[in-house]
Write a structure and sequence with these properties.
Length: 282
């Protein structure tokens, strides 16, 4: 359960570090499940299991020295809805501590899974996840008040490509199409005059320990750079919908084919399971 000062911090910044929610054994069990699903060995499949950077586009020529070139294949393994392929990951999505805290942050008594995603940046070749806001990438749901719980399956530190966040950016509206980053991966706005007065684009690292949870609002600007270290960077993010989230399609989304309700209705159904509600026995 989050206290008043944690709730106030989330309200101010749009992100918050929670506690360690997984034991060593639980982390190990999820890592094993992840290997299984990544290698295509699970009986049921997730919605996506691919390189987020695309397979062709990720091939990049890098200059080494004296004109020598090396070809690197940058990779971010993205698995969407691993909960559909793994009971352990479904159980994780329903983790009582996480769900109770997300419900507090969303000010709701009901949570459904919108979708989850693994992002695995392998050692050395782990690629970047571009600066973005989540909600503009989800053009089939409303309103923009979802909260995600991001749990590290390895210590996520600057060296292996932890996420970075821009404090306060969840209050600035939708700027997705104007977000860009410089050579150091620091974010900037292509038309800063569109930002509200006083908005300061200053990114901070969001290091999360193995088994710890970090929360972020669906409008918070965030991204994660390359992993050039020898360390793996595995994590599971669950994007939660409060009970009032509606289906309001305005564009494409990978979950669209799983929707069974009409536009304007509460987004629900077997692919958007309730994981927290007053009636669920804990
Ligand atoms: O894992 C990452 O580095 C990015 C994840 C992300 O963008 C998210 O959980 O919304």
């Amino acid at each position: 359960m989050l206290n008043e000062s944690q709730l106030a911090e989330f309200e101010k910044n749009g992100f918050l570090k929670g506690g360690v929610v997984l034991s060593e054994e639980e982390v190990e069990a999820l890592r094993n499940e992840l290997d299984n699903v990544m290698e295509g060995k699970s009986v049921t499949k997730p919605v996506l299991n691919h390189n987020l950077l695309g397979d062709e586009e990720a091939l990049e020529e890098k200059s080494l020295y004296d004109g020598m070139k090396m070809t690197t294949n940058e990779k971010v393994v993205q698995i969407v809805n691993i909960w559909m392929a793994s009971d352990a990951f479904f159980k994780h999505a329903a983790n009582p501590t996480i769900c109770e805290e997300v419900a507090q942050l969303c000010q709701t008594d009901t949570l459904r899974i919108w979708h989850d995603q693994i992002q695995y940046k392998p050692p050395i070749t782990g690629g970047p996840t571009a600066w973005h806001q989540d909600y503009p990438l989800w053009p089939i749901i409303q309103p923009a008040d979802l909260v995600s719980a991001w749990v590290a399956l390895d210590d996520a530190v600057i060296e292996n490509g932890c996420m970075w966040m821009v404090p306060g950016s969840h209050k600035w509206g939708n700027h997705q199409k104007h977000l860009a980053s410089d050579k150091e991966f620091m974010p900037y706005h292509r038309h800063p005059e569109l930002l509200p007065e006083g908005a300061e684009v200053k990114a901070v690292p969001f290091e999360i320990k193995k088994g710890q949870v970090g929360y972020h609002h669906s409008l918070t600007w965030h991204g994660s750079p390359n992993n050039r270290s020898e360390l793996k960077r595995r994590a599971i993010a669950v994007h939660y919908m409060p009970g009032h989230t509606r289906y309001e399609p305005s564009s494409e989304h990978v979950m669209l084919s799983y929707v069974t309700v009409n536009p304007g209705d509460i987004m629900q159904g077997e692919h958007f399971p309730v994981v927290y509600s007053p009636s669920l026995v804990r």
